[in-house]
Please model this.
Amino acid sequence: MTDRALPVAHGGDWRFWLGEHRGTLLALGVFILMFALYTGNHPAGFNADVVTTAANKGVLLALVAVAQTFVVVTSGIDLSVGAIFVLCNCVASRMFWETGLESAASVIIVLLTGLACGALNGLIVIYGRLQPIVTTIATGAVFFGIALLFRESPGGDVNEDLADFMTNQFPGGIPASAVALFVVMLVIWTPFRRSMLGRVVYAVGSAEQAAYMSGLQIRRAKFAAYALSGLLCAIGGLFITFVTYTGEASLDNANAYTLNSIAAVVLGGVSLFGGRGSAVGAIFGALIFRTIGDLLFVFDLDPLWQPLFLGIVLLVSVCLGSFRLIRIRNRLDLFG
Amino acid sequence: MSNAGSATSVLRKIDPAVLTAFGCIVVLLLLAAALNENFLSPDYLLAQLQVASFLALMSTGMMLVILLGQIDLSLPWIITVGGMMSTAAAGWGPWGPVIAIPVGVLCGVVFGIINGIGVAYLRVPSMIFTLGINAVAQGFMIVRTGGAAPQDMATDSMHDLATGRLILGIPNPVWVWVVVGAAMVFLMRRTIFGRAVYAIGNREIAAYLSGIRTQRVMLAAFAISGGLAALAGTLLAGYSTKAYQGMGNPYLLPAIAAVVLGGTSILGGRGTYLGTVAGVILITLLQSILSVVRVPWFEITEAHRQIVYGVVIVAMLLLYGRGAKVAA
Model:
């Protein structure tokens, strides 16, 4: 761990803090700009309903992007996040939601399902010593198969009161989904990031060998990262059940969420090489990704052209980081 | 005596991972034969090879990119570009049917070159850049088919290339695979380019300092990968007589899995083409057996197939694909 990973204990360290959080702040800025452009041009203008709809869509991807961040920070990649997300959606749609007690039990079962999937990934990667990318390709197939077992055809239901509460707005027009995301971050990400465990995860991502030599518990930290990733997917799966009222084992959905989560993480300034970036950045990355689509909609672009534009915007934005190449003096730094 | 000696020395030269992969193929075949004796008929096996050859073309390109330590996630829509552009080109005037396949492959090469520029020159991680190219290729295809309706039927020659049996009664795509595979082995073992690919996969900076133009090599590798994916797309279009959106979607994960099951390191720098051949056959057999096998007391659905498919891949990798301990 370098100085940068330490908290801002002394005044005057703000430059380090800024360096550490540059990606996150940039993503926040871009998101605010784009969202202002979006609501400014929306026929209904800036009102609570527009914001709530946008938040519900954004939060789904944001949760999966946070899940992806946990693994990416360890310098791994999780290609099964979409499958866990869909599996939890299917499990949720099979649960009983009549009484409050039943609903509470159902929520816990869904969360445990996700946690177990993530833990399984972690066990195979750590003790099986397989590469994360290959492992999660295979486990993703397994998780999707289990999702199909639960839901051969779309259907099922949830506690509609709970679902409406979670997807509506609080007094003052604040979207409940955004508050839920905030609470999730406060309860899961912040304690994780500040704990020894979280620091070890960043250390493993920066230099696994060095972390091992320093006597850090790298296995425990990696395991926690994968398990928490599964948990976040489960929260996402729960949430899409609240939004759609049903469960569906859709392979297209699973693939789209997996791939979009990678895009969101990169847009949010998280390094795919590990050890750098924050889940907060990933959330703004996800929101940016969703807002791009919305922007194309309000500017009345022919729907036919939207996927192409979305692709080009995505491609151009991941190339923006290449401007650093101009400043490189020594060609060897290219390969660093 | 000397024969036995040379046989063991040949065996010793082959990567244990490749041997295990071929062992798994034999086990799968025996298992399949025990369940249904038709499995070992020449007709069935040839049909398997025919299906395998489509995956083989994709895996060949993917292997080249993985050997560099990169990955090509744009495979699904470059396959589709190959299929859709070749069938569309078939409708361009009298020369259409002649230029159909070259046009399809060329479009794949163009997307591959853009991949190469992004990864080698702009230094964007391949996992995200090729993902972006995948989205762009998808966008192009949606625009193309949305407004007008370009021709989507495969030409007779594409159909023949994908389903005919011109020589020795062996399906034509298998011959395409043999040609591409032989070219790949020659490229990997007998050319500077091949040596450079392994060197870059091991350590790019060292390869650069040894005088290899690493960026050009990477660009070429991605271009080849794109071209082979598009070629597979034209064959797939010929096989199913038409090109359609999403035709490449089921192939990304099997293509990567085949390369890795063949003993190629996903971190790059290590792997043989023989292994990829084994991986492709392994994946094809596994999928085929899972879709054909019937058990009297139990109904097997798509769900079970997915689960068994994933579990078997993990199990095989645990058998021989494990990495080194951190402490080592």
About this structure: The first strand of chain A starts at residue 169 and ends at 170. Chain A touches chain B through 55 residues (CB under 8 Å). The longest helix of chain A spans residues 14-41. The CA atoms of residues 197 and 300 of chain A lie 47 Å apart.
